[in-house]
Amino acid sequence: NLDFHASGRHFLQIPGPSPVPDRILRAMSLPTIDHRGPEFGALGRELLSKVRQVFKTEGPVVIYPASGTGAWEAALTNTLSPGDQVLMYETGHFATLWQKMARRLGLEPEFLSLPGDEGWRLGVQAEMIEARLKEDREHAIKAVCVVHNETSTGVTSDIAAVRRAIDAAGHPALLMVDTISGLASADYRHDEWGVDVTISGSQKGLMLPPGISFNAVSDKALSASRQAKLPKSFWAWDEIVEANKTGYWPYTPNTNLLYGLNEALDMLLGEGLDHVFARHQRWAAGVRTAVEAWGLEIQCRDPKVYSPVLTGVIMPEGVDADEVRRLIYERFDLSLGMGLGKAKGRMFRIGHLGDCNDLTLIATLGGCEAGMKLTGVPLKGSGVLAALEYFANHPLDTDR
Ligand code: PLP
């Protein structure tokens, strides 16, 4: 019944899109302005300079009016030529989709994988990348592509280790990193980690609606784009980077989402990125404490790479995770992430990113706990009480 009005606020606890703060909604509600006028140019220059601070880069950050998938395509088509070999790594569903895209674009992706579902439970094994690059004496591999925060599993890979692996092999391949769901929630350093193209999106840590996405671009990637032969036009960096120098775009940008981005950048940079990251780490630890108290298993098996963005909760044998999620949605107006690809029906994902607080997460855990009880999932104890205790005993430095 479409006329039915559920009272109270919906709990959007999927790992993106994440809840959009009122302050950003208000910023986006202002009238759309002339994208070639002086007011727009000033906005463009301001936000293009601020956005670099979030990627931690001195170089250009290209913004597309597209979802993250578009920015994936932009990264590949700007830098590569038909038939180029690319080394990709199976961390989960999103890495798999990016690999499929590379094949569809006429590239030759090689997909490094661990046996069974191991790769979906651990981060990127950088030594596998190093070993493969060392074998490639002809330097046929043109790019290494990895997902930083794998949204389908809740594993955040060590990108600095991937950089070290490429350097240890003495290999010139470009390093491309998808941090669509990691940026502005998990620590990320484009320049320091020697990343050539960083791909991100608006609807996760940046707390915006879906609709804009990003490529942060190194000098080496810009040079590669001048030789690369895959067809590109809408995605081509050169015209955008040129127009961006004065704060404009070569086509109509997503004006109102850019208002929102400017506001989000003020919020994130005003708070300080380190504080933003600490807040996410603490929420993630509280949620894991709850999962442990329930006696359930977390999808990520290596504590060094637990995601600060989301936690994958594995259901016991014989329980359909999608049924549990459906009941939780219908009964408690709470959206949780579904198991994707190989993990379909086996787990649900709790998003703890963006505009949350302790009590949003306690309510979320309450919905999970009640829903699991109602569907007969055997629980060892109360996750809600365990998380409350965790949050009470682990204040942030800014908590009074
Ligand atoms: N990569 C990752 C890690 C993601 O989480 C997503 C979306 O959730 C994508 C790529 C695809 O982005 P989009 O759905 O915005 O096109």
Automatic annotation (TrEMBL):
Its cofactor is pyridoxal 5'-phosphate. Substrate binds at residue 349. SUPFAM superfamilies: PLP-dependent transferases (SSF53383). Signal peptide: none annotated. The keyword Acetylation does not apply. InterPro entries: Aminotrans_V_dom (IPR000192), PyrdxlP-dep_Trfase (IPR015424), PyrdxlP-dep_Trfase_major (IPR015421), PyrdxlP-dep_Trfase_small (IPR015422), SP_NH2Trfase/AEP_transaminase (IPR024169). Pfam families: Aminotran_5. The keyword Transport does not apply. The modification N6-(pyridoxal phosphate)lysine is found at residue 204. It comes from the Bacteria. Keywords: Pyridoxal phosphate, Pyruvate. Residues 34-289 form the Aminotransferase class V domain. One of its GO terms (biological process) is glycine biosynthetic process, by transamination of glyoxylate. One of its GO terms (molecular function) is L-serine-pyruvate transaminase activity. Belongs to the class-V pyridoxal-phosphate-dependent aminotransferase family. This is Alanine-glyoxylate transaminase / serine-glyoxylate transaminase / serine-pyruvate transaminase. It comes from Modicisalibacter xianhensis. The lineage of its organism: Bacteria, Pseudomonadati, Pseudomonadota, Gammaproteobacteria, Oceanospirillales.
